[in-house]
Amino acid sequence: MRVKMDKVKIIAEADLARINAIVTEYSQQKWALIPLLQKIQSDFGYIPPQSIPIIARTLGLFPSQVQGVISFYTQLYTQPRGRKVVRVCRGTACHVRGGKTILKLVKRHLGIEEGETTPDMEYTLETVACIGVCALAPNIVVGDRVYGHMNPKKVEQLFKNTGG
Ligand code: FES
Questions:
Q1: Least enclosed by CB within 10 Å: which of 45, 65, 101, 129?
Q2: Helices in 26-132 by DSSP H: which ranges?
Q3: Is 93 a pocket residue for ligand 1 (Cβ < 6 Å)?
């Protein structure tokens, strides 16, 4: 059985030094908040929560303002994410064709809940409202690839080298 990740990853002193160096490049430029957040995410794969007060102080903002911007943009993350993001559709068409069971099976195979990442950093599991290919329901997306007409056997095939 897999162990859930800690909510906040502890980052090393060297990482904090890197964050400080990146933030310094953007100092006193309030307009630079989004490019700065994108730069940190691109370097670390996510925005370490420990960087929020540093960013706020350097740009002359409140930490709540920085957090507010991160929360607003769904493509910004404060948790590490897996190399592949698995999105299970929970839209109506997928739901009525067994999407709930597919989600349950994916969770079981990966050993994680929605919003979590496997300890080997391979997969992050999310759900989405609709991915726009309802005719293929039930659907899941792994990385950039859509897998339609999902059933228990296909889920097993897809994640056969993973988890339970
Ligand atoms: S409801 Fe799942 S793709 Fe539209």
A1: 129
A2: 33-44, 51-59, 63-72, 92-96, 99-110
A3: yes
Instruction: Report CA(131)–ligand 1 centroid distance (Å).
Output: 5
Strand partners, 141: 87, 146
Cβ–ligand 1 contact at 137 (below 6 Å): yes
136 in ligand 1 pocket by Cβ < 6 Å?
Answer: no
Residue 4 binned pLDDT confidence (cut-offs 50, 70, 90) = very low
Using one digit for the tens of pLDDT, what is the confidence trace for 61-84? 999 999 999 999 988 999 888 999
164 — pLDDT class (breaks 50, 70, 90):
very low
This prediction's pTM: 0.71
| pLDDT at residue 3 tops 60 | no
Could you tell me the distance, in angstroms and rounded to a whole number, from the CA of residue 118 to the centre of ligand 1?
Answer: 25
Which residue, judged by its Cα, is nearest atom 1 of ligand 1? 91
